[in-house]
Amino acid sequence: MKTYLVTGGAGFIGSNYILRLLESSESMKIINLDALTYAGNLENLQSIEQDSRYQFIHGNICDGTLLENIFSQNKIDYIINFAAESHVDRSIAEPRIFLDTNVGGAFQLLNAAKQAWEEPGGKFRTGVKFLQISTDEVYGSLGETGLFTEATPLDPHSPYSAAKASADLFVKAYVDTYGFPANITRCSNNYGPWQFPEKLIPLVINNAMNGRNIPVYGDGKNVRDWLHVSDHCRAIQTVLTQAKPSEVYNIGGNNERRNIEIINLILDAVQRRGYEKSTSRLITYVTDRKGHDRRYGIDPTKIKTDLGWEPQVSFVEGIKDTVDWYLDHMDWMKKVTDGSYMTYYQQMYGNR
């Protein structure tokens, strides 16, 4: 039986990953370690709270003592590190939090895993692996042509992407120095259910159904490659269980879209659900974000060739399902946007 330590498992991608993993009948144990900051929400995982294979621990990956206790009490086989501060605007306003969590937390996790897994003579226990969940933003910005490959030099432009790139380099250093069993995945923009509504797609859905202005940075022509979160979760599990340690894999959907195109697609989809205020009149152009990368594009050839993974959810299908999911979960959206779920967590766990 494998034991998974999933950090940041109450967040968007982490919770989708846990839910997908538990859909199998496989014998396993999943430990979800999450600090429950504003973007972490246990309601995402309410359906599996009573599953005997699942355990939640409230805590921070920066807490070395807590990590030591977790490893001493459990024989951890896999670590999937989703835990991170991830919003670029917040990183511009408060960069220190991103340094502490994304770099310091990753280091603490690496160190705890090394101590637990290393055997006499410097070898590591067979069958263990650390998977660092990174982002295509560590590569910087592209021009009108070209794609990011695993050989593209790191060139981060925001405090968020700089912190993620730094964490990646710590993982690489542990691999190169100690022979530590790890992989790094770098994915394009994700969309799907349970995403905190500060991100583009749920933000636009929420504002469109409520007839609120939709802020658009610059001219709205920044390009991103979009991948449904379920496809990302499949890729993560594929790399975790099939990839050779030390390899880096880019994960993308070959689905580049301008931000303004995404916004108009969502406005149309929300309007078709009966929300008459959902029109292009809500679009409000605002001053561009500092250091805003113009275009990201992922080349996923390596993961397709080496491991046989490729996306299954078409964007047309995926964006329709995503809009429908948020409109069908308005109670969840309201709790998230008004912060009422955070009050509940503070009462249950205290301010940490």
How would you briefly describe this protein structure?
By secondary structure, the chain is α/β, with parallel strands linked by helices.
Walk me through the structure:
The structure is a single chain. By secondary structure, the chain is α/β, with parallel strands linked by helices. It has a single domain, classed as NAD(P)-binding Rossmann-like Domain (Rossmann fold). The protein contains twelve helices and twelve strands. It has a seven-stranded parallel beta sheet, sandwiched between helices. A three-stranded mixed beta sheet has the order 7-9-11. Helix 5 links the parallel strand 5 and strand 6. The protein starts with a strand and ends with a helix. The mean pLDDT is 93.
Please name the CATH architecture. 3-Layer(aba) Sandwich
Strands across the major sheet, in which order? Answer: 3-2-1-4-5-6-10
* Main beta-sheet annotation: 7 strands, parallel
Give the class from helix and strand content and strand pairing: alpha/beta
Number of folding domains? Answer: 1
Mean pLDDT across every amino acid position: 93
